[in-house]
Amino acid sequence: TAGSRRSAPFAPEQAVKESARRRLREFDVGDKFSHLPLPKAAVLLPLMVRGGRLHLLLTVRSMQLRRSPGQVCFPGGKSEASDKDEIDTALREAKEEVGLQPEKVEVICRLVPGIDKMNHLVTPVVGFIEDTFQATPNADEVSEVFVVPLDYFIKPLKYKALSYKTSSGYLTLMHCFIYDDQEHKKSFKIWGLTAHFAVFLALVIFGERPTFEVDYDLDNLILSSENNFINLYASVYERKKSNL
Q1: Where are the alpha helices (DSSP H) in the chain?
Q2: Are residues 76 and 86 in contact, defined by beta-carbon separation less than 8 angstroms?
Q3: 30, 109, 154, 194: least CB-packed within 10 angstroms?
């Protein structure tokens, strides 16, 4: 429509998407890490274009959940036997949690995984969704759904870094963002693995230096992100072996 074009003279929606697709495909890890012997989980990083800018859809976990109630996260969860791969898991969970139909997602890639507190191998799956998507949150799992401009994760207004030691003694930086949402008239705290994935996604797509420290070599993001993950995995796996 003419209206939406006017609000974004510098970058029509298609150009914004195409440039993001191109960057993301360079970072697609496919099933490179899928064989690792950890329980599997996946999250969907749903991207949309609003006013010529990329935005990321996030959810708030229901207060009745046992694990991490009230925390901000991406739609996602544990793999089930019927899932073909991590993409299936992420799409199935997004449908269950926020009513996003799998055929409404243009899946672009899988990025380097993370490892959560429960030692699940969590694969981030990136996909485009329509900016008109109306979430229907499943109240048992999700209390709210909101969107954040993706560039907030490289140029935040409210940010702090927490030095964080994983249970295996691996020292890492944990990003913590406070996002003041005008639409909901409230502030959301985005941290932990969710913030980690959002930051990496923004670094991949924008290729810019963030206004805060990250533990990547930004001149060699692909290699350093994989190395960081391998070090983290090795520290978890050593501990798993010692627990046997």
Answers
A1: 2-7, 13-26, 86-98, 192-206, 221-243
A2: no
A3: 30
Give the DSSP letter of residue 70. Answer: T
Q: Does residue 200 contact residue 111 with C-beta atoms inside 8 Å?
A: yes
Distance CA 27, CA 53 (A): 21
Question: Which two three-digit tokens encode residue 136?
Answer: 């229907």
Distance CA 47, CA 17 (A): 9
C-alpha dist (Å) from residue 168 to 1, 23, 125, 229: 53, 33, 26, 14
Here the CATH number for the domain that contains residue 194 is 3.90.79.10
For residue 141, the enclosing domain spans 12-243
The domain tally of the chain equals: 1
The amino acid sitting at 157 is L
Q: How many CB atoms lie within 10 A of CB 229?
A: 19
Give the integer Cα–Cα distance in Å for 166 and 215: 15
Q: What is the CA radius of gyration of the chain?
A: 17
Bridge-based pairing of strands 72-73 and 53-61 is: antiparallel
Angle between helix axes 192-206 and 221-243 (nearest 10 degrees) is 160
Chain CA centroid to CA 154, Å: 14
Q: Would 2 be classed as within a structural domain?
A: no
The pLDDT value recorded for residue 1 is: 45
